[in-house]
Automatic annotation (TrEMBL):
Name of the protein in its database record: Thioesterase domain-containing protein
One Gene Ontology MF term: fatty acyl-CoA hydrolase activity
Keywords: Hydrolase
S-adenosyl-L-methionine recorded as keyword: no
Residue intervals of the Thioesterase domain: 53-125
Source organism per UniProt: Linnemannia gamsii
Protein family membership: Belongs to the thioesterase PaaI family.
Pfam families: 4HBT
InterPro entries associated with the record: ACOT13, HotDog_dom_sf, PAAI_dom, Thioestr_dom
Length: 153
C-alpha cells in the first residue's frame, strides 16, 4: 500500500472516532505522502477563526498535533502513539478563505519516542512552526499485531 493510501486509512480511523479531530479538521485533505513525510491542505473556514477574525491558535496547534501523528503514520505505522510534548511558534496570521499548506515530517522514530516537525504556510508565507513528540512504544506493538493480522488474511 502506498504511503498516501496508508495515511488516508489512518486518518479515516481518526475521523470515525467522532471527537475533536472530526469537528475541527473534517475538511483536511491529504495531498501526498512518502516515508515519514506528508503534505496536507486545509481551507480556513468561519469555525476556524478567533474573535478577531484570524485563524485560531488552537486550530494551528491541533494541526501540529495531527500533522505529527500523520507523519508517524507515514512511517508505515498503524498506531501513531500519544503526545508527550507539543510546541508551536505563531509566525504570521491566516484569514478566512486562505488555504493552509501543512508539511509534516517524522524526524526520528525510535522504540519509545517519535519526533516530528510541522510547517504551516499560506502560499510561501510561514504561518506557524511546530514540533510534536510522541510516545510510540505501544504503537509499535499494535503495528506488529496489525501486520501479523494482515499476513494471516
Amino acid at each position: 500500500m502506498s504511503a498516501l493510501n496508508h495515511c488516508k486509512k489512518v486518518w479515516t480511523n481518526f475521523l470515525s472516532a467522532g471527537g475533536f479531530d472530526m469537528q475541527a479538521l473534517a475538511g483536511l485533505k491529504l495531498v501526498s505522502a512518502s516515508k515519514g513525510k506528508i503534505l496536507c491542505e486545509l481551507q480556513v473556514e468561519k469555525q476556524h477563526l478567533n474573535r478577531l477574525g484570524g485563524c485560531h491558535g488552537g486550530l494551528l496547534s491541533t494541526i501540529v498535533d495531527i500533522g505529527g501523528s500523520l507523519a508517524v503514520a507515514a512511517e508505515d505505522m498503524h498506531g501513531t502513539g500519544v503526545s508527550t510534548d507539543l510546541n508551536i511558534s505563531f509566525v504570521s496570521g491566516a484569514k478566512l478563505g486562505d488555504k493552509l499548506s501543512i508539511d509534516s515530517r517524522c524526524d526520528k522514530i525510535g522504540g519509545t519516542l517519535a519526533y516530528t516537525t510541522v510547517e504551516i504556510k499560506v502560499d510561501d508565507k510561514i504561518v506557524a512552526l511546530g514540533r510534536h513528540t510522541k510516545y510510540v512504544r505501544l504503537a509499535h506493538k499494535a503495528n506488529a499485531e496489525a501486520k501479523h493480522a494482515q499476513a494471516s488474511e
